[in-house]
Every structure is written in structure tokens, then in C-alpha cells.
Design goal:
binds fe (ii) ion; mainly alpha; 10 helices
Amino acid sequence: MQAIIEQILKDATAFQNGCHGLSHWNTVAAHGRTIALYEELDAWFLRLFAYFHDCQRLSDGRDPEHGPRAADYVMTWTPEALEMSEDDQRRLAFACRYHTHERQTDDKTIRACWDCDRLDLGRVGIVVNPKFLFTETAKRIARDKPLAQVQDAHAPRIRRRLRR
Ligand SMILES: [Fe+2]
């Protein structure tokens, strides 16, 4: 995984340190591990989503095309390099493409990816409403984790943002 992350960082747009950057990707990956475990989903798929979904952002602000750009970027890799099948690569691209403007899907793994991303909204001071989450595990995490605790983990960045 380390080699994949290093390549993603090399190919990432100039932006990788903001609130949609590497520390967010790490948090999404951590949620992915938990959700994959409890929901019996493909942990590798969720991990790749964590590191790909925001890597083509151009800024921390409104950037509606970053999902489609991430999806196109996923498809520049070979399935071998991603250590997944062609079909899974296309599913990963779908998960990235629609992670902000969600499309209807019955794919439990893709829904779990979107939950992992949403669960980290606390970093920007947004309380995650379990109603908008798909998996029971994500709902439980959202209910159990008070916002103060979530914000605590991201406190230095939130303070920096508030200062600007
Ligand atoms: Fe994200």
C-alpha cells in the first residue's frame, strides 16, 4: 500500500495538506478498516478509496469535478498495480466519481466508502447525521463519537482555518 500512496502523492494535484488532504485520507482509511471488519466487506477496496477519492482536488474549496477527476485517475492505473480485478477497478472509479453527488447504488462496499468519507465531516465542524449514512457500523460510529472528540483530533487544522 505504501508504494501506491507514494505514487498517488506524486500524482496528486498541488494540494495535499488541507482538510481534504493526507490526514483526511488516513482517517477515511481508518474508518474503512472498522467498517470492513464489522460489515464483512473488502477492506482493500475501502483502503484504496480512502487514498484515491480526493487526490485530484485542486483546492479545499468548492471543486465539483474532483470526484470525476479522481475516477479518471483511477482508470489510468492497471488493475495489477491496484491489486484488484478490472471489475473492481471500475467499481472503485464509480465510488470516486460519485462520492460527493451520490448516485443510487446497491453496492454495499461503495456505500461503505461514502460512509467512511462522510464520517470525517467532524474535521470541518459538521455533525454527522446517522440518518445520512448507509451502514449500521458507520451509524454506530457517528452516534458514539461526540463532535467534540472528532474536532479534537483535527483541532490544530480547525484552529488554523478559523484564524484565516
Ligand atoms: Fe473526502
